Structure to design on (598 residues):
């Protein structure tokens, strides 16, 4: 999944390339360069720690959108077993920007629903850049209700720039689809865990996000509007995206402090894309813990918990 | 060429007649010159083209609730500034100036009143002149409390929405108001209590995508802009011109998103009629 680097990752890229170069020389010239390579390996580790510790809010946004970042299907095929994808909203069509189906998590059957971006150009278009139409949200709701029917927990993976703003989406009721999901998700009599794994883009993310637990990967973002959109509306200049990324407080740590996110799932140094296995393992452990905690709670209590959780969110004085 | 030169003006002998500049207005929609008093008498609806001008919360209260029955609730709730947000001005200053401009604390007026002589309802009306009617923590909380009172008192709920969507300056807190209001509506839905949502020009974004679209009955005033994404954003995304009448009330009715499009003049009668079907 590696191979693409962001601007601020350039020093990392240089060291990676030097290591590769040395390895190649060692191989072709039959030289003993292990000591050098090891030294550079340590340097790479230090560099990753340093760079990622000082990351700015907008760099975090870039990381959340990193072209090499693992997407829903990567996790579904690694963290879960026996995934069988189910399609369609039974009304209009199947929306490939949301994938969903039965799967097992450490043997337990669950419904997993994830927003899916595409890797290459063709795939990106097929997945509509991870931006769902109403039928995507309706498919998700249909399958969440199915999970409820069979008393199976639901896990949603959130990764979208937002719900798609287009003519067809409006004609078929984008707003209604999102609103209905919000109301119905609250009432689900089964455990629901939502994980923001990349971009949590506003209402389009929230429409899959009303978990009993809301988890967030360390380098994911979650926001009411994209920093670019915010800058162009409030400052009338989308060049000020760095400033608005900072102002919006869209990183996992801020959101945990605000009580919006329950737990931050750690990522390897260098982000989830630098070591996918480690990122997946960390997600799996965290999911298992929360699933276990929720498994003995009565259905009515799960609903109450959700209502109270979201009722408490807000900052006002009387 | 002296005949082209302007005459030097001496002091005016006659004082200029004072014509109140707000006596006549030109209709924003059809350009007709209208006598303002007439327009007001016609509930701010152009008699020629039926354009519905913006109405303030208390105008909707007068329009829809029985005279002197409205009691406001939660008027003391005030927005905080959880993000310490600053754009071109501080959010706290933006709030102050909105309070000064509107004379209200926030972008929704909520309370209870009577409709049609007998039916007590929980009622809310949004205020577009307060930071675009945007939904932050206070709007979310006031709507949520109205729903809670509906549940406790077993009364119907009527909300007039008029909003640009979520309030960016409250960041994720404003997004979560969509969750909060929908959560309480979920509770209400289970209990069989009627909720009538009235959407007026404009209703977009996170407000449409939460409580506004969740009415048992969704009604709109004619010609209102109603949608998820704003037309400018859609145009930028698809790089095409938008079809005529796109995202207007009549378009939403045609596409099955609304139960009714009702002119302002008939809104109260319709409301009474509908409530009579649903309330014992």
């Amino acid at each position: 999944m590696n191979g693409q680097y962001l601007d601020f990752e350039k020093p990392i890229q240089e060291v990676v390339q030097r290591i590769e170069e040395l390895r190649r020389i060692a191989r072709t010239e039959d030289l003993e360069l292990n000591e050098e390579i090891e030294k550079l390996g340590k340097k790479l580790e230090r560099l990753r720690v340093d760079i990622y510790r000082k990351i700015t809010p907008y760099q975090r946004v870039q990381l959340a959108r990193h072209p090499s970042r693992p997407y829903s299907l990567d996790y579904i095929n690694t963290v879960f077993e026996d995934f069988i994808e189910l399609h369609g909203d039974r009304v209009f069509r199947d929306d490939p920007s949301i994938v969903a189906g039965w799967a097992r998590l450490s043997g337990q059957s669950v419904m997993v629903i994830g927003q899916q971006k595409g890797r290459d150009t063709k795939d990106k278009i097929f997945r509509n850049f991870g931006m769902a139409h109403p039928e995507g949200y309706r498919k998700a709701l249909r399958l969440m209700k199915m999970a409820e029917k069979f008393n199976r927990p639901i896990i949603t993976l959130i990764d979208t720039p937002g719900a798609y703003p287009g003519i067809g989406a409006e004609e078929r009721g984008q707003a209604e689809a999102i609103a209905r999901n919000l109301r119905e998700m609250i009432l689900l009599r089964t455990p629901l865990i939502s994980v923001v794994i990349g971009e949590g883009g506003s209402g389009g993310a929230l429409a899959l996000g009303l978990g009993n637990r809301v988890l967030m990967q360390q380098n994911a973002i979650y926001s009411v509007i994209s920093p670019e959109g915010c800058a162009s509306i409030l400052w009338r200049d989308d060049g000020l995206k760095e400033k608005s990324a900072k102002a919006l407080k869209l990183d996992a740590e801020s959101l945990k402090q605000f009580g919006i996110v329950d737990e931050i799932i750690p990522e390897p140094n260098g982000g989830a894309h630098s070591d996918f296995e480690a990122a997946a393992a960390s997600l799996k452990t965290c999911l298992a813990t929360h699933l276990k905690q929720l498994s003995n709670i009565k259905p009515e209590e799960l609903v109450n918990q959700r209502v109270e959780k979201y009722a408490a969110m807000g900052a006002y004085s009387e | 060429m002296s005949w082209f030169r302007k005459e030097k003006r001496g002091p005016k002998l006659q004082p200029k007649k004072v014509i109140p500049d707000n006596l006549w207005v030109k209709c924003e929609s059809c350009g007709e010159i209208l006598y303002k008093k007439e327009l007001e008498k016609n509930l701010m609806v152009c008699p020629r083209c039926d354009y519905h001008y913006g109405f303030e919360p208390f105008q909707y209260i007068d329009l829809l609730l029985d005279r002197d029955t409205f009691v406001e609730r939660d008027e003391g709730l005030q927005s905080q500034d959880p993000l310490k947000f600053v754009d071109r001005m501080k959010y706290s200053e933006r709030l102050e100036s909105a309070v000064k401009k509107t004379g209200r604390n926030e972008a929704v007026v909520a309370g209870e009143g009577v409709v049609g002589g007998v039916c007590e309802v929980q009622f809310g009306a949004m205020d577009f002149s307060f930071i675009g009617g945007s939904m932050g923590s206070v709007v979310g909380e006031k709507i949520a409390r109205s729903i809670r009172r509906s549940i406790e008192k077993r009364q119907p709920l009527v909300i007039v929405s008029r909003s640009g969507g979520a309030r960016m300056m409250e960041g994720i807190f404003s997004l979560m108001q969509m969750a909060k209001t929908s959560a309480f509506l979920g509770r209400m839905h289970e209990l069989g209590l009627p909720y009538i949502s009235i959407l007026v020009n404009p209703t977009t974004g996170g407000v449409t995508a939460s409580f506004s679209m969740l009415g048992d009955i969704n009604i709109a005033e004619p010609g209102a802009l109603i949608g998820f994404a704003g037309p400018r954003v859609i145009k930028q995304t698809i790089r095409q011109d938008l079809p005529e009448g796109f995202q207007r009330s009549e378009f939403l009715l045609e596409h099955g998103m609304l139960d009714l499009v009702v002119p302002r003049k008939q809104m109260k009668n319709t409301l009474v009629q509908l409530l009579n079907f649903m309330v014992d």
About this structure: The domain at 54-278 of chain B is CATH 3.90.226.10 (2-enoyl-CoA Hydratase; Chain A, domain 1).
